[in-house]
Amino acid sequence: MGVDWRAYLPVQDIYEEDLLDVYVRDGYDRFARKADILLNDPDGTLRTRYTRGTPVRLEVDSGGGFQTQWAGFVVDPSTGENQTEIELYGHDLWLRKRNVISSYEETSILGILEDLVTRLTPLKWNPDLVNVDDNQVLSIGWKGQQLDEVVNELASYSGGEYFGATNDREFFFLKPDTQQSPRNFGPTSFIEAEFDEDSTRSINQVTVYYDEGDSAVTVDNRDSQRELSNSLQTEDNVVLDVTRSYPDIETRENARRKAEAILTGRDSIRTGTITTWEGFDVEPGQSTYVEIPEHDVDQEMRVAQTEYWWMEDETKITVAGGGSDDVIDTLVDLSDQVERIEQQGASEDAALTRFINQDLNFE
Which pLDDT tens digit goes with each residue over 211-230? Predict the structure, then answer.
């Protein structure tokens, strides 16, 4: 039996009868979650029931009955010749559609979260999905910050919780929990695999923007750059760089420490993409064992992103692995929408301070 997909519109309580194709992307970064559906629409009339904000649930059946695979809301319907394409975003994106202009006096983190979510978003509040590790009482306020940035700040005061929205449109705020994927990837369980051979090499330059993006520091490992230059037989140092924006960091010293931490944590991370079939129970954040001899990969890795194409009958799993805690940042980096998010608040005119380190044996 092949794979079958269907689209359900809960408000109208109907299943779409003219579904032609489905693409679904899920990522460890919750704001990378998106989907596209293609409809047979010779009369050009179907987009009227897919107005912006309309919730849509996508279900898949690979032999054991239909199950919900993804859910979100309509962002952009477009009609062409005989077909209508609907672009969808995950429910998590509601956390980016409002800014916060609020002040709280002696209010717990839990109380602030409940007020923000229920007042500013259409997400449902389920107390069972909100577990504040350190429920501090705060006197705090915001003057226009994006809601997801505020929630992230509250998580930093607590236990670094992972947050977003479920397929049932319920807000969650929980400690990250690594689960084992029900599927591993060995020599007979994939169609194609791509691993950047340079990904085993250490990043040797990190730039951190701080102080609302007005300043920046760069930390270099010149020894690593020269070593890579020698191995590649190039005249100039070879720079493998990464840039991050941390607007809340206020001092140059703290920004330098953050850059050093990122730089020293990058040397053991390996990333790649596995093309396979089905895998609908594989979820971002899960741990899976990957053994691909032709790429010299034989290790436990974390799932960063999953993508499904119905008509192509193809699944792509993006993975990252290594012994560093920085693998979490890598999972976020590998989610497709993150590049512009990581750069937000970074000014091209920022004052840049460069630190050159030879061995990076920081305490």
Answer: 877 788 998 888 877 776 77
Query: 38: how many CB neighbours lie within 10 A of its CB?
Result: 18
Q: What share of the chain is helix, strand, coil (3-state, %, to 5)?
A: 20, 40, 35
Identify the residue whose tokens are 């599927």: 183
d(CA 251, CA 28) in angstroms, rounded, equals 30
Helix (H) or strand (E) holding 336: none
Alpha-carbon distance of 22 to 122, in angstroms, equals 25
Largest CA distance in the chain: 67
At residue 229, the 3 state secondary structure works out as: helix
DSSP 8-state secondary structure symbol assigned to residue 110: H
Find where tokens 């923000």 sit.
Answer: 116
Q: Please state, in angstroms and rounded to a whole number, the distance separating the CA atoms of residues 245 and 311.
A: 39
DSSP code at position 274: E
- Are the beta carbons of 274 and 193 closer than 8 angstroms? yes
Assigned token pair, 25: 């992307």
The span from the CA of 5 to the CA of 351, in Å, is: 51
Of 216, 302, 304, 201, the C-alpha closest to 258 is 216
- Asked if 74 and 119 touch (Cβ cutoff 8 Å), the reply is no
Q: Which residue in 236, 173, 212, 184 sits closest to 349, CA to CA?
A: 212
User: Contact, 39 vs 46, CB < 8 A?
Assistant: yes
pTM above 0.85? no
Strand partners, 314: 309
pLDDT tens digits for 132-160? 999 999 999 999 999 999 999 999 899 88
> How long, in residues, is the chain?
363
Residue 267 φ/ψ region, left for φ over 0, alpha for ψ in the -120 to 50 degree band, beta for the rest: alpha
